[in-house]
Design brief:
- The protein is an alpha/beta fold.
- It has a domain of 173 residues: Leucine-rich repeat, LRR (right-handed beta-alpha superhelix) (Alpha-Beta Horseshoe), CATH 3.80.10.
- It is 42% helix and 7% strand.
- The chain has 15 helices and nine strands.
- A nine-stranded parallel sheet has the order 1-2-3-4-5-6-7-8-9.
- It starts with a helix and ends in an 11-residue tail after the last strand.
């Protein structure tokens, strides 16, 4: 009797316990489907996760073993303050995650395969390109420089924003006072002032800047593309202070004769400048004479002044400097107006010059007299390898003369005479 009651009692209790256990298991599974007693984290993992979660307050990295250090670096958030990560983390995997999380497109091969260099160069470029004079605090630049100064080798600034214009609002009775109040006060700078930056980048070798605005759309105004004289003065001083600079490009910025002369005056004795690109500007003969003076004093290897307003006298000044220059290997004068006056002078300079390898004279209103001069030059010159005369009016006779000169030359490997009206036989 007691046994049966015991059996019944036991039998009646099992379903209750099973149901209770079932409810408990279902509750746990619903909250975390991957939960299992066998997956309790190791104490080491918990410690490393604690380091990751509190890395900003107490960065611990170099004291870890290589395996633990790799574990932490793979899991650190890319949102860490740069004041923490810049000079502490050198792992390329971390900086790759930072770049891919911030920019959709990026070619790391253009940055010596360094993701860290890519991140800091593009980071600084973005700060400059969206800097608004008298609106953006200069501390954004001054605070960023110590963090990125050692990783910046090249800056490509594709736009510079002008100051924000505020429409003048005053009553008729206030007109007499406007000149003495805020009406005469202008912005402290017309665009970003590079004097606060360039001398603080000890590894900068390449600088490319455009004074204009990208994507202005329906808000287009010509003053958005204005390189003022005040801009030019500050930029010239900044360039003079950057002694490591090797490549300088100021393109599509309306650099005229006056601004060109000012910029060149600060580059005459530059110790490291090797390439100068003033293409797509408004430089005329006076600016070309200034550049010619630079050729006689600096050690330039490449000069690009295509799509400017250089005519015969300016080309003659460049030719005079070229005849005495011993460093230049490439000269690009495409889309100017040098004419036969300048073309003949350049051809004669090549008789004396022994270093120039590439000369581009496409689209310069050249005709038969220049072809004759170049033909005579090719007989004597032994260094020129690339000559571009495309889109000129050499004519049938000019083509024949040029062909004769080339038959006595053994160094030229490329000559472009497309759209020059030469005969098919000459081609």
């Amino acid at each position: 009797m007691s046994r049966s009651r015991s059996s019944r009692r036991t039998g009646s209790m099992r379903p209750v316990n099973a149901a209770a256990d079932g409810r408990e298991m279902r509750s746990v599974i619903a909250e975390d489907p991957e939960w299992s007693l066998e997956l309790v984290p190791l104490l080491t993992t918990l410690c490393l996760q604690h380091i990751i979660n509190h890395f900003t307050e107490k960065p611990i990295l170099d004291d870890l073993t290589p395996d633990y250090k790799a574990y932490v670096l793979q899991r650190l958030p890319t949102s860490l303050p740069l004041t923490v990560s810049a000079n502490l983390i050198s792992d390329e995997g971390y900086w790759k995650r930072c770049c891919e999380g911030r920019w959709a497109v990026g070619d790391v091969s253009a940055y010596d395969n360094s993701w860290k260099r890519m991140f800091f160069e593009r980071h600084l470029e973005n700060i400059i390109e969206y800097f608004i004079p008298d609106a953006t605090d200069t501390k954004t630049i001054l605070e960023a420089v110590p963090l990125c100064r050692n990783f910046i080798k090249r800056l490509r600034v594709s736009q510079l924003l002008p100051p924000i214009k505020e429409s003048a609002r005053f009553d008729e009775d206030d007109r007499s006072d406007c000149a003495s109040d805020t009406g005469s006060e202008g912005p402290s700078m017309d665009h970003f002032d590079f004097r606060m930056l360039l001398d603080k980048l000890p590894n900068l070798v390449e600088f490319d800047v455009v004074y204009g605005v990208k994507g202005c759309g329906m808000n287009f105004e010509w003053n958005l593309f204005e390189f003022t004289f005040r801009d030019c003065e500050s930029l010239a001083k900044a360039l003079n202070s950057c002694k490591t600079l090797q490549v300088l490009r100021i393109r599509r910025s309306k650099v005229d004769n006056e601004k060109c002369c000012l910029l060149v005056s600060q580059l005459l004795d530059h110790p490291s400048l090797q390439e100068l690109d003033f293409s797509h500007n408004h430089i005329g003969d006076r600016g070309a004479r200034a550049i010619g003076k630079l050729l006689t004093r600096a050690q330039l290897k490449r000069l690009v002044v295509c799509n400017n307003q250089i005519r015969g006298p300016g080309a003659q000044a460049l030719a005079h400097a070229l005849s005495r220059n011993t460093s230049l290997v490439s000269l690009n004068l495409r889309l100017n107006r040098v004419g036969d006056e300048g073309g003949q002078a350049l051809a004669q300079a090549l008789v004396k010059n022994g270093t120039l390898v590439s000369l581009h004279l496409g689209g310069n209103n050249l005709s038969e007299p220049t072809a004759v001069a170049l033909s005579q030059t090719l007989v004597e010159n032994r260094t020129l390898k690339n000559l571009n005369l495309s889109n000129n009016r050499l004519g049938v006779d000019g083509g024949k003369v040029l062909e004769e000169g080339m038959s006595h030359n053994g160094s030229l490997v490329e000559c472009d005479i497309r759209l020059t009206d030469v005969s098919p036989d000459t081609l």
